[in-house]
Amino acid sequence: MALGRDFQRLWFAYTASALGSGIGFGALPLIAVLVLDVSTAQVSILAAVSALAAAVFALPLGDVIERRPKRPVMIAADLVRFAALASVPIAALFGVLSYVQLCVVGVLQSAALIAFTSASGAHLKALVGPEGRAEANSKFEQVFWLTMSVGPAIGGGLVSLVGATVTLAVDAVSFLLSALGIRRIQQPEPAPVEHTGKRDLGAGWRYIFANRGLAVLFWNSQLFGGPLMMISPLLTVFMLRDLHLAPWSYGVFLGVSCLGGVLGAWVAPALTRRFGLHRVLLWSGVLRAPWTLLLPLAPAGMAGFFWLLVAETALLVAAGAFNPSFATYRMEVTEDRYMARVVTSWSITSRSVQPAFMALGAALTAVIGLRGTMYVGGACALLSAFVLPWRSAKSAPLPEPV
After folding, report:
1. Which of 58, 80, 81, 103 is nearest to 352 (CA)?
2. What digits encode the pLDDT tens for the residues 31-62?
3. Residue 238 DSSP label
4. Is 188 exposed, middle or buried (0-12, 13-18, 19+ CB in 10 A)?
5. Long-range contacts of 363-366, Cβ-Cβ distance < 8 Å, separation of 24 or more
6. What CATH number is attached to the domain comprising 358?
7. Could you write out the three-class secondary structure of 18-45?
8. Do residues 331 and 214 lie in contact, with contact meaning Cβ atoms separated by under 8 Å?
9. Does position 398 have pLDDT exceeding 50, yes or no?
10. How confident is the model at residue 195 (pLDDT cuts 50, 70, 90)?
11. Residue 397 belongs to some domain of the structure
């Protein structure tokens, strides 16, 4: 179905920022290592501080965003990311770049991402009618996986040719293009729902837990996303050291497997029209879970490479179908006046849980080894298949913010 010219403008804005993020993927830690020559511990601290501090700063944003028009918030978030990232190559050019600046940039970038995600969910729900939301979310998901497939490869080439700081500048410009694209949207926004009383930082979480379907999906996302992030950084070491694969194989592995996400997102709307949103959500949620347990079973050499490629691609096909279905389901069951707070609470939790799982993975590796840790992560991810809204859940009575 046609989604309208304003959606096309929004889609262009998202594509620009997603491609820039793909190209700049991993640029901050690369700059920390190549330009500032920091230690391995400092690289880990950079990632942890960016995630956890951003979650703290973003805590009051859901309530603030709920009370305001969403489009100006999205533009402001893009401009903050542009300014933060652009400051790095400028500081490097004048020889004043520091590790502290990289940490500040990481926090600002992550907090702005949470703000943008919170506003964009509510904005998309107002921009696209119920009949078009599954297709709209599918298009965003396709762009995400496509840019993750080609972006890091382009970024790696740029790092080799012109350096990591210039690559980060490309990422910065992409957010400026995103802000300009959002600015071109013409459809007036509905007036924000007025809230009475004091600001309520916990309203998003209370709303989630008062709705049986949302609560189950909330725990599902933590049970799957956390273990997956625990396994993800270990795969590099596993492929290069345990399986004795060449470094180029890891880049090919990432690029090709991400095309599975594109395929899953592409077929999701057709599956939804045929089987219904709830069934697609359930079965894609089940089918993405078991593949993580196959990863540590890979043999050495090229046989292991193809083993990992098949398992990861199959996982991402299912995830590519699940993610837009989940986003659409969350839109449908969440009232407009709570949408931004629900997404903010969800994002903050995920951005706190995932670094915790990554730290747990690092600790477990020292005790039970790389394969053992990957088995633990796979088993935890498999549990997510049992934590899905198997019954069509209706909302419980929802409390007003206090």
Report:
1. 58
2. 887 788 877 667 767 777 777 777 777 778 77
3. I
4. exposed
5. 365/234
6. 1.20.1250.20
7. HHHHHHCCCHHHHHHHHCCCCCHHHHHH
8. no
9. no
10. low
11. no
